Amino acid sequence: MKTRVCRLYGQGDLRVETDEVPEPAPGQVLLRIGAGGICGSDLHYFQDGGFGPIRVREPIILGHEAAGTVEAAGEGVALAPGDRVALNPSRPCGSCAYCQEGKFQHCLAMRFNGSALRFPHEQGAFRDLMLADAAQCVAIGPDTSLAKAACAEPLAVCLHARNRAGELRGRRVLVTGAGPIGSLCVAAAAHAGAGEIVVTDLHDATLAAAGAMGATRAVNVAREALTEFAADKGHFDVTFECSAAAPAVRSAIECTRPLGRIVQVGVTGDLPVPINMIVGKEIELVGAHRFHAEFAEAVALIDSGTIDPTPILTRTFPVAEALEAFALAGDRTRAVKVQLSFA
User: Fold this and answer.
1) What CATH number should be reported for the domain holding residue 226?
2) Are residues 182 and 102 in the same domain?
3) What band does 343 get if pLDDT is binned at 50, 70 and 90?
4) With 90 as the cut, is the pLDDT of residue 53 above it?
5) pTM over 0.90
6) CATH number at residue 35
7) Using alpha carbons only, what angle is made at residue 150 by residues 334 and 65, rounded to the nearest 5 degrees?
8) Neighbour-count burial of 321, counting CB atoms closer than 10 A to its CB (0-12 exposed, 13-18 middle, 19+ buried)
9) Residue 244 — φ and ψ, nearest 5°?
C-alpha cells in the first residue's frame, strides 16, 4: 500500500515522497492521518537542522501532533475501521527504572514520533497512512474535528505544566509567550479556575489568540513594560514561562511574588538567570517535561468542548504544500498553529 510522507533530509530540505506501508501487526492499527500540527520542534528541525545537541542525522518523517481514522486493525485490537482517534506520540518502555516509578515521561528508552533524539530516528506522523500501536490511540466522538483532536498533544503538555503549578483556583497567573503552548496554558489555567490570567508576547496576532483562549489581559511587551506587575516584589502567584527567551525569563522572575512558583515550559539552550532574585523572593522554579496521563485528559477536554482550540488554528495546508505551511508556521506575526491535511 502506498502513502505520501513529508520527509526532512536536512536543514531546509523538506520533500513529499511516496513510501510503502505494511498491514498492521497484532496490537497495531493502520491510521489514515487527517490532521497534523507543525510544532516548534518540527520548525527547529526544518529551519536549523535540529535544536541544541539534537541534530537530524538521517532522513526523518516529521510530525507528532496528529489525529486520524482507523483504516485497518490487527489482531487483538478493540478499535475498528472507521473509528476516529487522537494519536499519542509517546511510547515509554514500561520497564526502566523511571517507568517502574510511574514517571513515564522520563522513560530511559522513550520512543516519540518524529524525534531525532535517538538514532535511528523515530519516524513521525506527517503521512497519509501510518502504523501505530492501538494503545497510542484515544477515540474521539463524531462531532470533534480531526484538526481539533490533533491539538491534544500540545494541550497535554500544558495540562502537565498545570499539574506542576499546584492549585490555581483564584490565583493570579502570568503566561509569558503566546504561541500555541502559551495559549493552551492560558486555557488550562482558565479551566482550573485562575482568577486572573495575563499573557505577554511580542506579536498582536498571537496575543489575540491567547485572549480568545481565556486570558483576562494581553500585554504586547514590545510596546508596554511590565513595571506595574514587578512592583512590590511581584504580582503573580504562578507563572508559566513558555517562550524560553532571556528577557521573558527575567520578567517572569521579576513579576512573580515571593514564595510563588514559575513553571518553565519553554525550552532553549543555556540562559543567564538572576539567581539572587530567585533566592531573595524564595521563588520555586520547576520544569515541566512532556506528559503521560494528561494526554487522555486533553482528548476528553477537547472532545467534550470544554477546551476549544479553534482560536489557535491559523490555517491548514494540503501536504503537497508543506513548504508553504512551514513558511507560515515560522512567521509569528501571522500564525499560531498551522496544520497539514492529508485528505
Assistant:
1) 3.40.50.720
2) no
3) confident
4) no
5) yes
6) 3.90.180.10
7) 80
8) middle
9) 60, 25
With 0-12 / 13-18 / 19 or more C-beta atoms within 10 angstroms meaning exposed / middle / buried, residue 343 is exposed
> What pLDDT is attached to residue 78?
96
Count of residues in the chain: 343
| pLDDT single digits (tens) 286-302 | 999 999 999 999 999 99
- What is the Cα 82 distance to its own chain's centre? 26
Task: Tell me how crowded residue 259 is: count the other CB atoms within 10 A of its CB.
Answer: 10
Same domain, 120 and 176: no
Please give the grid coordinates belonging to residue 165. 503549578
In a shared domain, residues 87 and 187: no
Coil vs helix vs strand at 145: coil
96 and 20 in a common domain: yes
Task: Extract the C-alpha cell encoding 78.
Answer: 478493540
pLDDT in tens, 303-342: 999 999 999 999 999 999 999 999 999 999 999 999 999 9
- Is pLDDT at 120 greater than 90 in this prediction? yes
Domain of 207? Answer: 158-287
Cell numbers given for 266: 519553554
SS3 154: helix
Indicate whether 220 belongs to any domain: yes
Q: Do residues 42 and 110 both lie within one domain?
A: yes
Q: What is the pLDDT of residue 201?
A: 98
Cα–Cα dist 77/134, whole Å: 7
CA dist list (Å): 64 to 89, 131, 247: 6, 13, 29
